[in-house]
Amino acid sequence: MKRLYTVKELADEAGISTSALRAWERRFAIFSPNRTPGGHRLYTRDDLKILWYVKKQQASGRDLKEISSCGHEALLKSARSFFGTESHTALDNSIPSSNSHNTISAYPNSKPAETSEQDIICALKACQLEVAQRMVENLYSVSTSGIDFVSCALCIMSHICNPSLSICNCCVAFFHNIVKHLCQDFILHSKVPAKGIALCLNLSNNESVTSLTENLRFLQAALYLRQWGYAVVLVDESIATPDIPNLVRGTKPLLVYISTSNASNDAQVLQEISSTISTTSLCCVVTQKSESQNDSDTNNKNLNLKNMNFYFVNSMLEFEILALRRMENQTQPPQELLQNFLLEYH
Fold first, then answer.
1. Which residue in 22, 23, 30, 280 has a CA-CA distance of 20 to 30 Å to 189?
2. Residues 6+ apart with CB under 8 A from 66
3. pLDDT for 223
């Protein structure tokens, strides 16, 4: 009878965490497991062969992305050829037992043991950037979701921005960039079915420590939108400001999420978006400055925004309510949705 493994059994057999195992499947399509009627993954002996074949290739210096680029079928063929297909003997003699202390991470050369937030802070304080990068990648691989990962990253960010730790700004920026790329990767590879488009615009493009922290909060909001069923289009400082209205017009999003360090300073681009945005799009604006404390009508008047689909959110809870309602009521006019929201919560 063919041996089948649950996620935990396969992880225990190979010395890999279940979170890392799922990360491999999600990010690199290393496995293609069958599922039970209840949705639980079932892995085969071939999957175990693939797992240890990949480890041996990593040990020889190959990158995980390169190893997996050939596709699942070609990878399986290589693993079978490497270990042999006639019996289990070759495999059993070639790989460590589940009692060995060898571990495998979702990233090549990453730290085997579970990484703590304090480990990363210490590495950044010592300017050990390569070590810090491996630790952050390992933290990502064992996180249950992108949202959990960015929440941990925000906690670390709050510590490393503390002047008492004397961590240089370049190390803070380095940490921010690693987290940013991993969050973008998670959004890109998420398998949540998309039911509508969310255009996420980050207008906070300076390199101050405060701005870097807000950039992570922007990514956190984008990850929530992806989890709620939006196909997320991320736009940051790499897009020229004059191109933004054309992007808004071309994507026809259900929701536009804008993060700005100062809405007054970004008034011109907000006005252009306001004049371009479809009447079917709801626009939520988050600002680091005090404008968000005013009611949305006051902000619209102050910034001369003629499109009343704009709403300046005061909290993550408001943003969550509006985004979920927009997803559930895609045909409802945004102005009507906003009116109902204000009557209910204000």
1. 280
2. none
3. 93
In this prediction the pTM is 0.63
- Give the strand pairing for 230-235 and 196-202: parallel
Q: Which architecture, in CATH terms, is 4-94?
A: Orthogonal Bundle (1.10)
Cα–Cα dist 74/44, whole Å: 16
Which of 170-196 are b and which e, b meaning 16 or more Cβ less than 10 Å from the residue's Cβ? ebbebbbebbbebbbebbeebeeeeeb
Tokens representing residue 162 in the block: 């503390």
How far is Cα of residue 131 from the mean position of the Cα atoms in its chain? 21
Question: What is the structure's pLDDT at 211?
Answer: 81
Can you give the pLDDT at residue 49? 83
70, 182, 218, 260, 284 from 169: Cα distances, Å: 40, 20, 20, 21, 31
Tokens of 5: 């493994």
Sign of the alpha-carbon torsion through 197, 152, 202, 292:
positive
**Length of the chain, in residues:** 346
- Report yes or no: 244 and 277 within 8 Å, Cβ to Cβ: no
Fold of 192-346: Rossmann fold (3.40.50)
265, amino acid identity: N
The per-residue pLDDT for 99 is 39
**Burial environment of residue 282 by CB neighbours within 10 A (0 to 12, 13 to 18, 19 or more):** buried
Note the pLDDT of residue 91.
47
121-124 own/partner pairs: CB under 8 Å, 24+ apart: 121/156, 121/159, 121/160, 121/165, 121/167, 124/160, 124/167, 124/171, 124/172, 124/174, 124/175
Question: Which helix H or strand E contains 213, and what residues bound it?
Answer: helix 209-227
Residue 327 has what pLDDT?
Answer: 92
Q: Do 255 and 284 meet the contact criterion of CB atoms below 8 Å apart? A: yes
Query: What does the pLDDT read at residue 268?
Result: 81
